[in-house]
Each structure stands twice: as C-alpha cells, then as structure tokens.
Amino acid sequence: MLFVLALKGILVALIPATLVYLSRGTDRYRKLAWVMVFFTFDLIVFGAFTRLTDSGLGCPDWPGCYGEANPFLAHEEIRAAETLMPSGPVTVMKAWIEMIHRYLAMGVGVLIIASLIIGWRRWKQTGEPRYAPRLPVALLFFVCVQGAFGALTVTLKLQPMIVTLHLLLGMSLLGLLTWHAMRQSPQPVIAPEAATLRLSGLIALGLLLIQIALGGWVSTNYAALACGGFPLCQGALLPAMDIEHGFTLWRHLGMTAGGDYLPFEALVAIHWAHRMFALVAVGIVAWISHKALRIPGLESSARALAWVMVLQVCVGVATVSLDWPLTLAVLHNAGAALLLLLLAMLNFRLAIPAASPAVDARPGLSPA
Questions:
Q1: How many helices and strands (H and E) does the chain possess?
Q2: Fewer CB within 10 Å: N-end or C-end of the chain?
Q3: What is the C-alpha separation between 190 and 352, in angstroms, rounded?
Q4: How far apart are CA 162 and CA 250, in angstroms?
Q5: H helices within 184-197, ranges in order?
Q6: What is the mean pLDDT of residues 41-54?
C-alpha cells in the first residue's frame, strides 16, 4: 500500500512538473518554485473544504483508507460504515474528499524533494546563493512535520489542538515557499525608507498568524454559528461566555478537559475572540498597506494586500450573516491564505538586501 501511495504522490506531482518542463524560458527552477506555491495554496483551500465538509475522518485510518490505497478498494468497508451512520464521518463522498487531500499533500512533498535535489545540484555547480540548500531543507522538514500532524489529525479523531496546528503548519509552509519563490525572482528597486517597515511587516505577519489560529480554533471546534448576527454576538456586544473551557487547548472534540460536553458558552467565547482579534489584524494590515503604498517599489504589493483584506472582511461578514454557506466559508479560508502569501512577499521585499543578495534588483533582468 505504501508503495502505491508513493506512486500516486509522484503521479500527482508529475502534472505540474511536466508543465514546468515543457514551458518556455530557461529559468525552470524559478517556475517550479512558484508552482509549489500555487499547489500548496490549492492544498490549503482543499484542506479547508475537507474540514468544512466534515470529511477529516472520511477514511478513519492513515495513510490509506481501511488499509487500501484508494476508496475504490475499500468500497465494502466504507459502505458498511455509511449504512450504520448515513450522516456520519465515513461516507463514499467524504472518503474520496479525504484521500484526494492526501494525494495532493503527497504531491507537494514530491515537488519539494525535487526542488531540493535540483537546487542542491545547481548550488554545487554555480555557487549562487539563491540555490543554497538551507531553505529547501527547511521546507522538506516542514512538509514532513505537516504530514505527521496530518496523521495525528486522523488517529486522534480531529482533536482541535492538533487540527489547528495542522492548519498553522500548512500556512507556515505556504509562507516559506513564497519566500523561496521570491528568492528566485527579479525584484523591483525598493526605496531605502522601506527599511523602516521591516519590524512592522514582521509584526503584521505574526498577528495574521494569530488570527488564522483563532479562525482555525473556530472551525475545528465547530463554533462558526455560535455568534448569531453581526456585528453583535447573540444580540449583545459582550455575550455570556465560558472562556476557560473554550480555550482549554488539550481536550477532545466537543468535550471539556474533564470529559463533560463543551458548553455552548465556550463556543461563543471562541467565536467572539476571533471576531474581536480581527479588528487588530485588519488594523495592522491596513496601516502597513497605507505606509507601503507611499514607498516606491512597494505600491503593487500594498494595493494587493489592501484589496484582499477588504474582500476578506466582506466574505467574513457575509459568511456569518448567511449562516456559514460552504462556498463562502472556503473562500474565507482561501482569503486568509492569500493574505499570508502577500504579507510574505511584502516582508521579503522589505528585507531584500539581507535575504536575497543573488537576486538582481534591476527591473526586467532575469536571474541566470
């Protein structure tokens, strides 16, 4: 089974790898770096779809499905589980959603391994810093840890802390892959005053990760509908909440640390915290977008960041107001990933002198 699963991961990775190989131009390594970013973004969005459709246990074992490499071979076991619980965690559709998510994850892993091997060879041949293996090795480590948390997500039956960490690791991997891709790309000339925003950029990135963690905590605890209405929550600015049980991190899904059912007020606390911290995240992103817009060379990044933040807020409000429709909920997760990607790009441009000495900043000049 493991061999067949590995083969599936290679086959999935061959699709984008082939497109890169057949593309025009000489710098295919740069294209591969951006393909990995795109593929990982898609993986995160599909992971959100997997979580929001309650398909995380569509195959209740790992890495296969009832010990098989695909749901076709486990059809009898899946049908038996679905017959016992028609609306339960195991159905034919949910099994396929879960396994497709795993195939995509394996494909990302294969692409990262290929990038490491190619980059290492080129670094040995040319000595160019952009091929230095330190970051690709870190990427490989991250994807392995991410895979381990994917396994724990299933074996620990969607324990909220594990699922939230799985999300954060995926987002962190996306940020690192974006940084790696930016190292391979020519950058515009950035005005020297950009250095004054370096610390602010890092703070904005950190606050966004906290907000993503809070959003993941809402999703993994199924607290999305705990605050009815907007902008009030349960008709009040400060509703009745159980913060202690809501933010007890190590516990089973739907349960308190003591084994009792999680009270509704705990779900309200989880959702309310996500809403309130959104004000902080929006404020810092709006501020840094405003500042970056005035610095030559950062205008495009600042505009993109501002527009995506506006859309993210609109989608978030619409998601709550319309009782959490699946499409909007997935788009809300995609917006968070896109914001992180754009902030990673902005932080790279703020740190160009230190982070990318091998990338020529003259416009229009491609790296070798």
A1: 12, 0
A2: C
A3: 9
A4: 9
A5: none
A6: 96
Amino acid at 232: L
Inter-CA distances, 82 with 51, 55, 256, Å: 18, 13, 28
pTM above 0.85, yes or no: yes
Residue reference for tokens 């929006």? 282
The residue count for the chain: 368
DSSP states of 217-228: HHHHTT-TTSS-
- 257-285 pLDDT, tens digit per residue, is 999 999 999 999 999 999 999 999 999 99
Choose among 90, 70, 86, 65: nearest CA to 7: 70
Nearest residue to 107 via CA among 238, 12, 231 = 12
Structure tokens at 249: 């991190």
Integer Cα distance of 160 and 168 in angstroms: 12
Separation CA 172–CA 143 (nearest Å): 10
Predicted local distance difference test score (pLDDT) of residue 363: 38
Let me know: does 111 contact 32? Beta carbons within 8 Å: yes
Cis ω on the peptide bond leading into residue 239 (within 30° of 0)?
no
**What is the structure's pLDDT at 202?**
95
Q: Is 77 a catalytic residue?
A: no
Q: Which of 68, 82, 98, 265 is catalytic?
A: 98
Rounded CA gap, 201 and 196, in Å?
A: 10
3-state DSSP assignment of residue 365: coil
How far apart CA 215 and CA 273 sit, in angstroms, is: 9
Mean residue pLDDT across the chain: 91
